[in-house]
Amino acid sequence: QDAARRRDRAVRAAVAQGLLDSEPLVCLLDTAGIRASAAALTAAFDAVTAPGTPVLHAFAAKAAPLVPVLRLLAGCGLGCEVASPGELALARAAGIPAARIVLDSPAKTAGELREALALGITVNADNHQELERLDALVAAAPGGPVRSPVGVRVNPQTGAGSIDALSTATATAKFGIALRDPGARERLVRACLDRPWLTRLHAHSGSQGLPLPLIAEGVRELHALAEEINAAAGHRRIDTLDIGGGLPVNFASDEHTPTYAEYAGALREAVPALFDGSYGLVTEFGRSLLAKHGTVLARVEYTKTAGGRRIALTHAGVQVATRTVYAPAAWPLRILAYDAKGTPKTGPPVAQDVAGPACFAGDLLATARELPELAPGDLVALPDTGAYFFTAHYGYNSLPRPSVHGFTADAAGTVRFALARPAQTEAELVAEAGGDRGD
Ligand code: LLP
């Protein structure tokens, strides 16, 4: 497979070019893979959408909050979904125009809302109280009506996928306005009819682990609600549907499944009218655009045995794979073994615990994993970690944020790295730990 070949080349080049000389672990992003994912997403929607339909694919910044990544995706025609003032700052630093930014924070302050409206950023309100806050801000907007498109997030309460904590459309989820609670639908329709500036509906049914039919069910609910509001209004009051993200990623192999084409096909089957051009569309994919294109690469420092188990002590652990360490059954990661030169290791598989560097017993990437026997100086790679892994660094033990390098390989196989994020320095660690307060 192309992606696996590019990864192997990048590992070898990372060693040859000395990326691991100053740090015991680095993170790699395959820019060709990221571009291919963005192109696949765009093509999948182009294939099912009536010509001329406005479609904005807003990358969910939380999956990889790195300015060069946002810039790369913007260059592929994508916008950006942000869920905090910090993410908004990153999107702006990446030069993404306000008209291509969507703000979804669940607990927006009045200041955050005011700034978004002043900039012309799309705002998706989470609840009735936020809509009331917006009433006041819209009324007070200098120079007349606000430029920002405003929507409201709906929880279709369609149920959970395989990972509860990532299922955002359960009956009791904290996000959006719960649609199936008694009286809720009527109140929401009224809230929309009362506000001429409220022109969008938003739903994000959940992340990893949600089956396509459940995602499609949520979108069907969203579309039906828009039709109901528009029928009551007597015109196209709701003109845009934001259907969120959530396409799951296959962590078991290099295969990229399910695909965006399968996702678009499932939606088209469940809600054919979604694509007929009567609504503009917004998507908010995160994980599926990035996960397969990121690799953590770390040295094995020591190997030993304890109680009959083999243990490899590596530099990749809880700081870059928090979820795997705390919930290994929900988030198993593949581990690939390379020798000190970055050549894939061969040899009979041997059961080994692969441990991280942090000072707690649970800092394990895998237990009894069958791998060619690891030795000090070897490397382990964690593929599929481009979203919500090393980009969601966990600062326990003051382990520094590792560097992130985007890479490209030319036709001759020469790999070039570009620094996307430098490693956190000791001075930064000390300053962030209050060390520069001088008292
Ligand atoms: N839009 C909204 C409003 C979201 O809340 C999310 C993810 C997305 C879009 C992007 O979903 P994706 O396409 O990436 O599945 N911390 C978790 C991930 C939580 C994702 C939450 N929201 C993790 O570590 O995997």
How would you briefly describe this protein structure?
The protein has 439 residues and is α/β, with parallel strands linked by helices. It is built from twelve helices and 18 strands.
Spans of at least 5 consecutive residues with low confidence? none
Class from secondary-structure proportions? alpha/beta
- What's the alpha carbon Rg, rounded to whole Å? 23 Å
Distance between the termini: 57 Å
Largest sheet: 9 strands, mixed
CATH fold call of the largest domain = TIM Barrel
Please provide the ordered H/E string of secondary-structure elements: HEHEHEHEHEHEEHEHEHEHEEHEEEEEEH
Which overall shape is indicated by the principal axes computed on the Cα atoms? elongated
Helix content: 25-40%
CATH superfamily caption of the largest domain: Alanine racemase
Bound molecules: ligand LLP
CATH class of the largest domain: Alpha Beta
Number of domains: 2
CATH architecture of the largest domain: Alpha-Beta Barrel
The number of distinct helices, counting runs of at least 4 residues, comes to: 12
